[in-house]
Structures are given as structure tokens and as C-alpha cells.
Amino acid sequence: MKVSEILKVKGSTLFTVGPDTLLSDAVVTMAEHDIGSVVVMKEGRLVGMLTFREVLRVLAARQKEHRIGPTPTMSEIRVNEVMNASPTLAAPDMTVDELRRVMNDCGERYLPVLDQQTLMGVVSFHDVARAVLEAQGFENKMLKAYIRDWPEAQ
Questions:
Q1: In this model, does residue 136 exceed pLDDT 80?
Q2: Is residue 153 part of a domain?
Q3: Which of 53, 76, 147, 150 sits 20 to 30 Å CA-CA off 34?
Q4: What's the pTM value of the predicted model, to 2 decimals?
């Protein structure tokens, strides 16, 4: 199975924000749509990814700084201050096994999929798990059908 096939099954809905978007607005978008990431785009090009990982990091840092003195609120922080400006990328022709290896190596749960410079979508660790589960289910079904239809020895 290829990454492009996962994207077909997943659908084409993609949520993006600009780098100057307030972090608080991006978090509201993520919460309202029950998504773990948004793609950061500028002038039609990918410039970063914002995931809940980055949001949690900034909240934890604010909490530590708050003990020392005043800190900026989430409505004062811009996405470009906390986003991952160099996300690991996936290609549409990657196999699921390659994608799993890349995700394990980089530790990122959401990878933008680029075909040349065109953003095709985002694959998540959850999408990969679902695809593998479906592929295994299909394989098991085919093996059981094969075994059931096994010719008897004569």
C-alpha cells in the first residue's frame, strides 16, 4: 500500500493556517475539528506544521516562566514562533512500511505529503495504523477463503 492510497481513503479535507495566525486561533481550529495538526502555509507553500506537541511545549514553557514573571498569553503568540519549520515530509509513492519507518525514526506523528512542491495532504500515525489494520484484515480474509477452498487429498 502506498501513501497516495491512504490519502484517497482518508479524504481531501486539509486544515491550514498562516504563519502569522494567533496560536489561540489555531488551537481553536484544531479543537473544533478534532484534529491533531494544521499545515502552516504562506503564499501557497508549506512553511511548517503545528501539532499539539508544539502547543503543549509552549504551554509548559509558559508555565515555568510564569513562576518567574509575566509571560505572553496564547493570544499574543503567533504560529510561526512555535511551529515545526522543518517537518519530515512523506511522498505519495512511499510504501506504508517506509512511512512507518520514517515516522518511528523522526518521532513525528503527522507528516505532510508533498508531490514536488504540491501539498497532497497529511498522514497521521492513526491513518497508518488504520491502513495496516485494514490491509491485514483483507489478507486474513483472503487466506481464510483460500484455506476453506483447499482441495481435498485424493
A1: no
A2: no
A3: 76
A4: 0.80
